[in-house]
TrEMBL record:
Assembly and binders: Homodimer.
Signal peptide: none
Protein name: Orotidine 5'-phosphate decarboxylase
Residues the entry annotates as binding substrate: 10, 31, 58-67, 121, 183, 192, 212-213
The Orotidine 5'-phosphate decarboxylase domain, residue ranges: 4-228
Residue ranges crossing the lipid bilayer per the database entry: none
Keywords of the record: Decarboxylase, Lyase, Pyrimidine biosynthesis
Pathway as given in its UniProt record: Pyrimidine metabolism; UMP biosynthesis via de novo pathway; UMP from orotate: step 2/2
């Protein structure tokens, strides 16, 4: 059973996000990112959950270990089901993030899943080589970050579909491979560099897909969601 698609609620204002949700079925998995969180504060998570959805809170923490650990301790109380950090922050930072999350999760509640971003899906190999000074292939860099994240106790990583099967080989079936950069056939890539279809994601071994504009900017978002879901489930 594949995890249901996660819809990126990338809207500039709460009423737009809720207007979108009004048109959608209940019981979704949605992603609240910086755009909504920074404008509406921590309450946004409970408000979205109050509408019957589960929340991936995507704040991509990346700072010194102590700061991230303490921030995660606070975030654990916000009520999200999944949270993330940047693997580039290093293994000590990831370990402290996990410690903070465990310390902050209220008793009786499940600890949110903690995943690490490897190389953003908006990054191309040539850009990584030139701007980050990381030589070699993008695939090698992503797998390296995935192994580091696995060793630091992360539940999985964010990567593109193109690296999912290599990560399955390196870190196993159960390690989460959360893959954004999803487009329906011939969809506009926008700022993404490593895109794939829901069916490709299913074949490559993604455990989760994150889909934003292909659904949120569709003329009929509910129909676009059903198309994405069907392609992902059928594979
Ligand atoms: O962590 C993420 O969710 C993320 C990581 C990544 O490497 N690439 C990426 O696109 N995302 C997020 O996934 C969503 C993709 O949106 P669309 O390109 O509109 O489908 C955005 O909300 C991004 O913030």
């Amino acid at each position: 059973m594949k995890h249901s698609p996660i819809i990126a609620l990338d809207f500039p204002a709460l009423d737009e996000a809720f207007g979108f949700l009004d048109k959608m079925p209940s019981g979704l998995w949605v992603k609240v990112g910086m755009e909504l969180y920074l404008q509406n504060g921590p309450d946004i998570v409970e408000r979205v959950k109050g509408r019957g959805h589960q929340v991936f809170l995507d704040l991509k923490l990346h700072d010194i270990p102590n700061t991230v650990g303490r921030a995660m301790e606070g975030l654990a109380r916000v009520g999200a089901d999944m949270v993330n950090v940047h693997a580039a922050g290093g293994s000590e930072m990831m370990e402290r993030a996990l410690d903070g999350l465990e310390a902050g999760t209220p008793s009786g509640r499940k600890r949110p899943a903690l995943i690490a971003v490897t190389q953003l899906t908006s990054t191309a190999e040539e850009q990584m080589n030139r701007e980050q000074g990381i030589p070699g292939t993008l695939l090698d860099s992503v797998v390296r970050y995935a192994r580091l994240a696995d060793e630091a106790g992360m539940d999985g990583v964010v990567c593109s579909v193109h690296e999912a099967s290599a990560i399955r080989d390196a870190c196993g079936e159960d390690f989460l491979k959360v893959t954004p950069g999803i487009r329906l056939e011939d969809g506009d890539a926008h700022d993404q560099k490593r895109i794939s279809t829901p069916a490709d994601a299913a074949h490559a071994g993604s455990t989760h897909i994150v889909v934003g504009r292909a659904i949120t900017q569709a003329a009929d978002p509910a129909a676009a969601y059903e198309t994405v879901k069907r392609q992902w489930e059928v594979g």
